[in-house]
């Protein structure tokens, strides 16, 4: 498997400071007929309300009582193509680079497995590609992979068992084997608590960008990352695809102040020429007045979080003028959105934005009601 994939090194890039550009691409996939233009440097066109599948068909929460959170292995080709069966514009997934320079798709910083009865961890970025691919189900018939584990919030190790499992995969495989009309929201994954040198970030991003530029073809692409330096750097390295800054919106606190509020996220975007923000939805609901400020700054706003699996929360975001949501329950939410947001209602974007702008100031009582919907899926599992 490893021999069939080509490793890209920084010295393969003609100019170390910039990946060769392609003509600017529309963010609007063939799944949509209408979109709204964002007048920033990279051509960025989004549908009237964008649905994005979280890690494909949805993330895995092994200790959840909801079977949907354990249906299909997250961040797998099977998960991506299962999501493609629904009217989504994009899928979101996490990309890291192995020590031998292969972009692979995996969310956690470390892989947990078992050896001689003891669970151990290895950093994904410290594994070579062959080592990474030996975990979980194997593509080769008769070959057994090493068992994967996950760590629960209370510190326990749990076998990563899902109803339908699948092999780990590379970014190149995703481009080659996933429905081509489905857009990719590529999250550039870095350790939240690690300080990265500029040269390391540059090298990592160059490796990822080389695969993107070789295999993306006409597929719509969004880059996103919680790492503010990486966000601004990937924007400098290419001008073909929009870059979004991920933030918890103040719901978590980090040593880097740029990560701690929507206001700081706006600064990162405006200073770096980024196209938008992806925020934890609770951060937006706690500070709804930021939404018109973000829109007035000509930035796009997407959200993620467990509340995005609640239909009422998704519809409220549509009314607030938020541009799209990342969801786990792709079948249910896509059906709900299709029923709530009629095609005729979405044709005139100016009218939609006018309607949204007149409704962005929700009362504390309304927001309190929304946040107290209390479905199990928004509780801490």
Automatic annotation (TrEMBL):
EC number: 3.1.4.46
Record key words, sorted: Glycerol metabolism, Hydrolase
Catalytic activity reported: a sn-glycero-3-phosphodiester + H2O = an alcohol + sn-glycerol 3-phosphate + H(+)
Name of the protein described by the UniProt record: glycerophosphodiester phosphodiesterase
PANTHER family: GLYCEROPHOSPHOCHOLINE PHOSPHODIESTERASE GPCPD1, GLYCEROPHOSPHORYL DIESTER PHOSPHODIESTERASE
The keyword Acetylation is annotated on this UniProt entry: no
Limits of the GP-PDE domain: 49-337
């Amino acid at each position: 498997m490893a021999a069939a994939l080509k490793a890209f090194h920084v010295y393969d890039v003609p100019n170390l400071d910039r990946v060769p550009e392609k003509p600017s691409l529309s963010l609007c996939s063939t799944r949509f007929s209408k979109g709204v233009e964002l007048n920033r440097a990279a051509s960025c066109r989004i549908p009237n309300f964008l649905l994005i599948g979280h890690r494909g068909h949805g993330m895995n929460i092994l200790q959840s009582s909801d079977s949907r959170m354990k249906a299909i292995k997250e961040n797998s080709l099977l998960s991506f193509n299962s999501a493609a069966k629904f009217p989504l514009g994009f899928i979101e997934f996490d990309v890291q680079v192995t020590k031998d320079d292969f972009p692979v798709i995996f969310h956690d910083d470390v892989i947990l497995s078992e050896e001689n009865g003891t669970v151990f961890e290895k950093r994904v970025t410290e594994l070579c590609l062959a080592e990474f691919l030996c975990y979980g189900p194997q593509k080769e018939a008769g070959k057994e992979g090493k068992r994967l584990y996950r760590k629960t919030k209370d510190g326990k190790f749990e076998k990563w068992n899902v109803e339908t499992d699948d092999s780990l995969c590379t970014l190149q495989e995703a481009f080659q084997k996933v429905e081509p009309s489905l857009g990719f929201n590529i999250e550039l994954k870095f350790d939240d608590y690690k300080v990265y040198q500029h040269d390391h970030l540059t090298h990592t991003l160059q490796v990822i960008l080389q695969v993107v530029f070789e295999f993306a073809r006409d597929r719509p692409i969004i880059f996103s990352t919680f790492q503010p330096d990486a966000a601004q750097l990937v924007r400098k390295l290419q001008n073909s695809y929009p870059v979004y800054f991920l933030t918890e919106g103040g719901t978590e606190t980090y040593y880097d102040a740029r990560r701690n509020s929507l206001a700081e996220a706006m600064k990162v975007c405006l200073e770096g020429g980024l196209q938008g923000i992806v925020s934890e939805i609770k951060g937006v609901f706690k500070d709804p007045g930021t939404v018109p400020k973000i829109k007035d700054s000509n930035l796009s706003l997407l959200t993620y979080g467990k509340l995005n699996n609640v239909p009422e929360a998704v519809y409220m975001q549509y009314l607030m003028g938020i541009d799209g949501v990342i969801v786990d329950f792709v079948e249910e939410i896509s059906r709900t959105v299709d029923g709530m947001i009629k095609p005729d209602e979405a044709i005139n974007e100016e009218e939609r934005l006018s309607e949204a702008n007149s409704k962005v100031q929700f009362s504390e009582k309304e927001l309190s009601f929304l946040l107290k919907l209390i479905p199990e899926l928004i509780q801490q599992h």
